[in-house]
Amino acid sequence: MVERKKLVPDHFSEKSIVDCLSKAVIFSGVYQSALSRLAQQGHQRFYAPNNDLWIENQDIPLVGFILSGEVLEEKRRTNGRFIIFDSLKDGDIFGEERFIHQNLKSRHTLRALTKTTTLAFNDPVDILDALGEMYPVFLKNLALEFVRRNGQRDVLAMETLMMLVPTRFALYLLKAASKCPIMIEKSSVLIPRETQPVVAARLATSRESVTKVSLIFEQFGLIHRQKGAISIDDVRALRDIALKGRNLTFSALQASTEGQFQGARVQK
Fold first, then answer.
1. How is the chain split into domains, by residue range?
2. Which of 157, 207, 248, 266 is deepest in the core (most CB within 10 A)?
3. What CATH number matches the domain at 168-265, 1.10.10.10, 1.10.357.10, 3.30.1330.40, 3.30.70.100?
4. Is residue 206 within 8 Å of 215, Cβ to Cβ?
């Protein structure tokens, strides 16, 4: 009788994780210091061959990155066979849909083809927090990855592209506000106003997108622009957009005439 070898999980050091992620396209342009924070805050999970990360039509429990091994993204047909849509390897992201919809059902089954180790997070916000100032670069790469996987006409891919700018702009304003004194008499925060090209560069987006989202935020009373400064009038609503507005699009903002939208309520 042949004795089966026991599978020993691969444990990655912080340096090994950084080396792995730095080679991935989705982290192109992200500093290694940000990847180090990501490695420190994530949890390593091990999957034996043919183990499922999750099954189609179920909640997506995690978002993370492949450190070693290979994971197949597949869908079961009525005859019991699988159609393979994608193969995920070192550095690839999985569960990225949760950046838009927290409770979205998985469209595919994720199955480990080989012995696999992942760096996983329970909440995508934890990834943005760990990346710090590098989050705009990551989000831009993430949007391109959605298009690559789902196609230009995929609704989910386009929703991702649309939602990124409001989320990034809200995070940008909150970060700037954290460095400024609160104006008690107006219950607002005044931050220096940078030029649109500078803001667009910081958010890895276009000047037109910055203009569009600025006008929407101002329309709903979140901010108002002054000469050389921006007054943040509703910090709580901006925080809700940044942390809870994964499915917040330009159209969702514009459709709300009363200043109330999913993930945030603007106090007039």
1. 14-148, 168-265
2. 248
3. 1.10.10.10
4. no
* Cα-based distances in Å from 67 to 15, 45, 60: 12, 10, 19
- Global model pTM greater than 0.85: no
pLDDT band at 137 (very low <50, low <70, confident <90, very high): confident
Please state, in angstroms and rounded to a whole number, the distance separating the CA atoms of residues 267 and 138.
31
Q: What is the mean pLDDT of residues 217-224?
A: 86
Return the closest-CA partner of residue 62 out of 93, 19, 83: 93
CA dist 33 and 37 (Å) reads 7
Look at the chain and count its residues: 268
DSSP 105: B
Supply the CATH classification number for the domain 14-148. Answer: 2.60.120.10
Angle, alpha carbons 27-167-156 (nearest 5°): 75
Please count the other Cβ atoms lying within 10 Å of the Cβ belonging to residue 264: 25
Query: Residue 231: in which H helix or E strand, if any?
Result: strand 229-232
